[in-house]
Design brief:
single chain; about 425 residues; alpha/beta; Rossmann fold; Immunoglobulin-like; 3 domains; four-stranded mixed β-sheet; 16 strands
Length: about 425
């Protein structure tokens, strides 16, 4: 593994006091959330870092911010003002915002290393971003010049196969354990909680915060605080439902609202039981949001990952499905399950296309019409069909003592 040993005195800086450890706590902070506060609080409790810099990201090519840069900075300042009581060296570094253009994390870290040679920089990473880390530009270069500090976020497991790819990393949980620290949610400043309750418009944007608010609910004692936290949880849950039922929109650089564009899925597989249809869609390691719609024999699945947005639309299913669909993210695939309205085994995913029936010309002799119909059936049928038609016709002619009959060699033969 690439983890450094927290018991190493040199690593703690006890042999070289001239080098200070600085944690770069970067993010879009659009908005800053209770999850960010909890992770910052844990980083402070380790006592490991001399400085912690909150680093709001600048212009991004992969997303459009809901909040302005000024608003994001203001939210960060409100948190720093509270956290400074626990760690005076917590500060905001607006380098990326001030730059006014896009910059990859590698170049930001490289710049800090050249400007502040007395610092040893560490790069903070939540486990929700771990899977997509290896798609970042210049990621190999970044991993070679810094140590990642990885914190587990609720609902996002840290997998060993991801850690094996990172040359230098520390787990925040290990820092807390090996340094004799424990994190208690009750350590959170009541002022921080009150401010978030007061300004919940800035913090209720992300439904992934629900588990964090539920943890706060467990430790809350005053009925009024519990009631307010419950209101926030219910509001977040409702917001999440509204997002799933409303087409997503983005604002372009001109401020014009446009629908989000999705890439159509061309490679997928399917499975079934008598009661369910299961679509299996390759999506990678991370799934942020899934929107599923079903209407009879039409299904539409929209998937938002941290890398791209995907859409799978299937029309003319074998039979109708219900709209009460569920999904699971397993082994880089999204398994979407639709209930069948009628329990049965499907021979194919799509309903078979009906062959157009030949229409006889008007005024044609019935005998000729019958002959043409028999000829079509004979030519389009398989070997068994041809034998059956030939035998039936032969027996019919024998009973009528009519030696005349169709020349099956003219039909194409057997």
């Amino acid at each position: 593994m690439g983890a450094r040993n927290c018991d190493d005195e040199k690593f703690f800086g006890q042999e070289n006091n001239t080098v200070m450890k600085c944690l770069l706590f970067g993010g879009s902070f659009d908005p800053i959330t209770m999850g960010h506060v909890l992770m910052l609080k844990q980083a402070i409790l380790t006592g490991f870092f001399n400085h912690i810099w909150i680093l709001p990201s600048g212009i991004r090519t992969d997303k459009i911010f809901k909040c302005s840069s000024e608003h994001r900075l203001a939210m960060c300042h409100s948190i720093v003002d509270e956290l400074k009581n626990d760690h005076p060296s917590v500060a905001i570094n607006s380098y990326e915002i001030d730059l006014g253009t896009t910059i990859d994390s590698y170049f930001t870290v490289k710049y800090f290393q050249e400007m502040y040679k007395e610092y040893d920089f560490y790069f903070f990473l939540g486990s929700d971003a771990l899977a997509s880390l290896f798609t970042w530009p210049y990621i190999d270069d970044l991993m070679n010049i810094t140590t990642f500090v990885i914190a587990e976020r609720s609902g996002y497991e840290i997998f060993p196969e991801h850690l094996e790819k990172i040359p230098h990393y520390l787990l925040l949980s290990d820092l807390l354990k090996q340094c004799g620290k424990t994190f208690n949610l009750s350590d959170l400043s009541s002022t921080i909680v009150r401010n978030q309750l007061k300004e919940q418009e800035s913090f209720k944007m992300d439904s992934s915060d629900i588990p964090e608010w539920e943890k706060l609910l467990e430790i809350a004692t005053r009925p009024t605080i519990k009631a307010k936290i419950l209101d926030i949880i219910q509001s977040l849950s409702k917001t999440n439902c509204d997002l799933k039922s409303t087409p997503k929109l983005i604002n372009d650089a001109t401020g014009v609202t446009k629908p989000i564009l999705y890439s159509h899925v061309t490679s997928y597989s399917w499975d079934q039981t008598d009661a369910s249809l299961i679509l299996i869609i390759p999506v990678g390691d991370v799934v942020q949001d899934v929107l599923i719609e079903a209407n009879g024999t039409l299904v539409d699945v929209k998937i938002d990952t941290m890398v791209k947005r995907l859409q799978l639309t299937i029309r003319n299913l074998y039979a109708a499905v219900g709209g009460d669909a569920t999904y699971k993210h397993k082994r880089q695939n999204l398994h979407v399950t639709f209930p069948k309205l009628v329990k049965q085994h499907w021979g194919t995913l799509n309903a078979p296309k009906e062959s157009p029936k030949p229409k006889p010309p008007k005024g044609e002799d019935p005998q000729n019409m019958l002959m043409d119909l028999m000829k079509n059936m004979y030519q389009e049928g398989d070997a068994d069909m041809k034998r059956t038609i030939a035998k039936a016709w032969s027996e019919a002619m024998t009973k009528r003592n009519d030696p005349s009959g169709p020349n099956f060699e003219d039909f194409g033969g057997l």
